[in-house]
Every structure is written in C-alpha cells, then in structure tokens.
Amino acid sequence: MQKVILASSNPNKLREFREILSPLGWEVVSQKEAGIDVDPEETGTTFEENSAIKARAVYNIAHSAVIADDSGLSVDALGGEPGVYSARYGGTRDDKAHNAIVLEKLKNVPDEARTARFVAAITYISDNGEEKQFVGTFEGRIGYEERGKNGFGYDPIFMVGEISSAEMSPEEKNAVSHRGKALRALAEYLGNL
What are the residue numbers of the active site? Predict the structure, then answer.
C-alpha cells in the first residue's frame, strides 16, 4: 500500500479521502498522524491557491506524497460568498453559525435565485515534489433551514433536488459531491502512475 499524507486534521475530510482512496491501495494518514504540526495561513484568493499552500507546507516538512484540499460554498446571490472564507465565515469556525449567516442573508431571496455550488480543489504532491491539481463542483441551491445529520459544514442547508446533502448517505454524497469528483480525478491520475 502506498502512503499519502492528508494536509488536514479534519476527521470528516480524512474519512472521505480514505473512503475513496483506500480501495485503490492508498493509505491516507492525517498530518497529525504523520507527526506534522503546521497550520499555514491561507492567503490565496482561490481554492486552488489555498490547496497548494497547505500541500506545500506539509510537503516541505515530510518530503513525501501529500494531498490537500481547499473547499467551500459559493452562493450566486451573495456574489460567490462565502467562497475561500467558508471555514471562517463571519469570523467564526462554527458550522451552525455559518449556516445561520447564509440563511439570514438569503431570507428575502426567491427559490430560483438561491443557486449555489460546492467547490473542491485538491493538490497532490508526489514523493519527488511534482504537483498536480484536481477540481470538482457540486451544484445545488440553498434551502430555508438546516436538514439532515449525515453531513458537516454547509451540507444541512445545501439542497440537491428535494433533499439536503446532509440527508444523503455517505455513498450517495461521495458519488456526486465536489470532493468526490475531485478525488475520483485524483484517484484516476494515481492509478495511472
């Protein structure tokens, strides 16, 4: 099994990365499990830039294969907000607070104008330092209340048809999600190495 370090300590991201890459022969370990304690400042203006910043910070310590992602929600009626600030929207790192802010800002916005998408940019750095990026998107709309218990972040307010992404099973979500799409592109690339 080949080993890759995930430049994150987020248990939800770690679970998603493992679910998709483990069957392909990749052992995914968190940066904490790899003994790496680094939290670089995400100064990029795009998901791709921030993903690369995180991957390079871990690679510069480990000098072994690393993957990092930066992902978030982009709401059309909010000019793309929260965007790259999704994890710290409104100056907090609390998911419920983030969802409340988005719902409040959209309270007078009609259903047809509540379009949104999740975006995930994954950076892979090989053992020898070669970088490759993969981007996936997940289209939907913002609902009117939190629904479901299976997701995290903005999943409870992100509607796909008549259900929220937090009401999907992990398998259903991985099949269509932004991170799932980017991870499958990464997996295809890794499988062809």
Answer: 70
